[in-house]
Amino acid sequence: MLTVDPVTTLSRPALVVTADLVEATVPAPESLRPWLTELGRIPTIRDPAGSFAHVPQAATTIVLRRQESAPRAAFVIGPQTRARYYQPDKPAACLRLRLAPGAVRPLLGVPASALTDRVVRLTDLPGIAAGLAGELNELDADEIFAFLKDQLPQRISEDATRRAQRDILRSAVAALSARPDGRSMTALARELAVSERQLRNLFTAGIGVSPKHFARIGRVRRILSQVRAGTPVGGGEHEPPDATSLAQLAADNGYFDQSHMTADFRTLMGVPPRSFLRGAVPTPSPCRPLDRI
């Protein structure tokens, strides 16, 4: 059962509420793992205390929006290389189906790179998932996995080459995700018995970002998770972290030094860590318009 109480989810006062912070997730069943990793639910949040942020995400997501007094709709959010800050004009809840590495083309009919930093209607895409949009919009969260277990295996057809490429990509993603200090692309390619060029091409088509950018996004997301989980950040409850704690976060996550971490964080989040943690972020905008394919 997917349920979440956004008040109890917030482990510490937060001036910037992130989508990840209020999302309840369940992993996809084993039979769906080739194509999906998890299903998340973001409840309707009324009057957030500050900005609502979507942090960078190196995955493609099918979003089923449940907005009050409006028809349900299905969108696809591609990999997001920069944080975006919003002030929603209308309360809305949503379900998020996160696609597995290499599953974008089989499900959506385009390479992941065609969706990077874009938001499009699911029905505008040529893949098989577009034909399921109507049914998905009508289902409750607890019904979605059962529906997809019945539908996807009979609709997706992959040859041995495509499955082998997907397996390589999943292994590369697991290796990069497990090492906060990063991995040498040369060593990783050798370990996976592919060339560096082939590895980069697999990431571009199957993930939508390069291996290097995938690792950068992973490290910044890890820092945010550590702070939310209660990793000491120095100062008082509402104060920014001190230099010692930032230096420790940098060391724990494989950065050369604190300035390296700060530069990476600023590039992806739009502001340095101190500013983000005290709520000093870019001016939020209304929900972004849809892109066209």
TrEMBL record:
The keyword Protein transport does not apply. Residues 167-279 form the HTH araC/xylS-type domain. Gene3D superfamilies: Homeodomain-like. One of its GO terms (molecular function) is sequence-specific DNA binding. InterPro entries: AraC_XylS_family_regulators, DUF6597, HTH_AraC. Keywords: DNA-binding, Transcription, Transcription regulation. Pfam families: DUF6597. The keyword Transcription applies. This is AraC family transcriptional regulator. It comes from Nocardia tenerifensis. The lineage of its organism: Bacteria, Bacillati, Actinomycetota, Actinomycetes, Mycobacteriales.
